[in-house]
Amino acid sequence: PRRKGTSATSEHSGDEDEPDTDLETDRLLGQQRTDDHGFYDEKEKEGGKKKGRNKEAMIHEPAVLIEGVLFRARYLGSTQLVCEGQPTKSTRMMQAEEAVSRIKAPEGETQPSTEVDLFISTEKIMVLNT
């Protein structure tokens, strides 16, 4: 597996050393929601008029209707990584590279996978079996 070389003396930008917290995500999403004031009400009114050609999908759950985009994907597997405290962005990137190296089949071997639909909205990400 290929890995990026890092050294203890390499300098990172200030953003990489800050923890990537749920609070920051909530703050950014909150800003987006205030910018799009009224957008969701208009979308709900137009919801019944959409044609099948559209890539947008409606997922119905007992408590909520959500609009989002549906992607066809291949699920390769999962693994667990342990990290103490709030990881930095660079730490999360290293974790992602480690996870891929654990899951991905060696070159020349077949990669086991399962076809799934990946539903992405401003509210959540869902993996749906097909």
TrEMBL record:
GO biological process: chemical synaptic transmission
Keywords: Repeat, Transport
Transmembrane regions listed in the UniProt entry: none
PANTHER family attached to this UniProt entry: SYNTENIN RELATED, X11L, ISOFORM F-RELATED
Compositionally skewed regions (Basic and acidic residues) per UniProt: 33-56
Lineage: Eukaryota, Metazoa, Ecdysozoa, Arthropoda, Hexapoda
Gene Ontology CC terms: cytoplasm; dendritic spine; plasma membrane
Ranges where the PID domain occurs: 68-129
Protein known as: PID domain-containing protein
Region (Disordered): 1-56
Biased composition (Acidic residues): 14-23
Pfam families (alphabetical): PID
Superkingdom of this protein's organism: Eukaryota
PROSITE patterns in the cross-refs: PID
Polar residues bias (residue ranges): 1-11
